UniProtKB/TrEMBL annotation:
One of its GO terms (molecular function) is sodium:proton antiporter activity. It is found in: Membrane. Its main location: membrane. It holds the Pfam family Na_Ca_ex. Residues 36-188, 222-362 form the Sodium/calcium exchanger membrane region domain. The chain crosses the membrane at residues 12-29, 35-54, 66-90, 102-123, 135-155, 167-186, 218-237, 249-268, 289-311, 317-339, 346-364. This is Putative sodium-calcium/proton antiporter. It is a multi-pass membrane protein. It comes from the Bacteria.
Length: 366
């Protein structure tokens, strides 16, 4: 009996996502009492850990840099679905939800995931080493797309307020998607070597020497379970979001905090995967996850929201405020100084994490 229990527990990465989706189906669209909120929260955490496991299996099968794209794109697609769903049902209070969530995702990835990865890698190896060519190009693409989609709406004059006109929104959507696809082409084809992990000694790592790649069947199974886990993560996050909104309102914090909480929940799988990669001296993989997620969050979300605005009522507020622009500019400057040398220590990791702390504090107390 003990052996059977151990075998079942060993397959928790398979049954936790399925159980989470089952609970999601039962509770979808309902007001959850406190006990169900707690259960949903626990299953949400389990689905996050399962998503990380299956993403790593798929990444090991396809290799880098394709593996880093799997989790980034999958999470972003689900994030887009969550934003659109909340905007449809939320009314006027969700007009800035896309902006708040996307900006939070950029700050969390470019400061949180990047910072903690650098810190973990530098603590273990004293110096975290990565490819400045690929990482610098990724940061430049993130800065360009973020400025185009989140900064310019605050300065255009065709519409009142921080929003694009329909033609401007269409142009920004096409430009963002085009830049993202160009980056993916460069990352996976033309300059793939710029995004391959290297050791502290500067040696390129083509694969894990001590582990055999999983079979095609196992990889496909993990890919399916990864999608199930991500659906469960976002669905359960939506289910507990009323409790989050009530807690935010009770604490007297602004509505933008809801977007921050959503981004934190959705990006948990990528954060854990990036930290694990950094702990294995795969710093480039961690940075691929961080910056690739930031780019996908904007490059896929803005076009999707632009399409959704065909049937959504009300304005779409995309432009950042002055405080947010300062934080974005500071993140880009600090990020540039971090990636240009191709080497970083605990100082750079600490600086990025301090910027994340400033963002979180000002989001709660603007």
């Amino acid at each position: 009996m003990t052996a059977k229990i151990a075998a079942v527990l060993a397959r928790w990465t398979a049954w936790i996502p399925i159980l989470a989706v089952a609970v999601l189906v039962v509770t979808f669209g309902r007001d959850l009492p406190p006990p169900l909120v707690i259960i949903s929260g626990l299953l949400l955490a389990g689905a996050v850990l399962a998503a990380v496991h299956h993403a790593e299996v798929v990444a090991h099968k396809v290799g880098e840099p394709f593996g880093s794209l799997v989790l980034a794109v999958a999470v972003t697609i689900i994030e887009v679905a969550l934003i659109v769903t909340l905007m449809i049902s939320g009314g006027e209070k969700t007009q800035a939800l896309a902006r708040d969530t996307v900006f939070a995702a950029v700050m969390i990835t470019c400061n949180g995931i990047l910072g903690i990865s650098l810190l973990v890698g530098a603590v273990r190896r004293r110096i975290a080493v990565f490819n400045p060519e690929g990482t610098g190009g990724a940061l430049a693409a993130v800065a360009t797309i973020a400025t185009l989609s989140l900064v310019l709406p605050s300065f255009t004059t065709s519409r009142p307020g921080p929003q694009f006109s329909p033609a401007q929104l269409a142009f920004a959507a096409v430009a963002s998607l085009g830049l993202y696809l160009l980056f993916v082409l460069v990352q996976t084809r033309r300059h793939r070597d710029y995004f391959m992990p290297i050791t502290t000694a500067g040696e390129v790592i083509e694969g894990e020497d001590h582990l055999e790649p999983p079979s095609s069947k196992a990889a496909l199974t993990s890919l399916g379970l990864l999608l199930v886990a991500l659906i469960a993560v976002v669905g359960l996050a939506k289910g507990v979001s009323p409790a989050i909104e009530s807690a935010v309102a009770a604490a007297g914090m602004p509505q933008a905090v809801v977007g921050v909480v959503i981004a934190l929940l959705v990006l948990l799988p990528e954060t854990i995967a990036a930290v694990r990669a950094a702990a294995r001296d795969r710093m480039q993989t961690s940075l691929n996850l961080a910056l690739g997620s930031a780019m996908a969050s904007i490059g896929l979300t803005i076009p999707a929201i632009a399409i959704a605005m065909i049937w959504l009522d009300g304005p779409l507020l995309l432009g950042l405020g002055g405080t947010q622009m300062v934080l974005l500019a500071l993140t880009v400057v600090v990020g540039t100084l971090t990636v240009v040398p191709g080497r970083a220590n605990v100082l750079q990791g600490g600086i990025h994490l301090s910027l994340l702390a400033v963002f979180l504090f000002l989001a709660a107390s603007p």
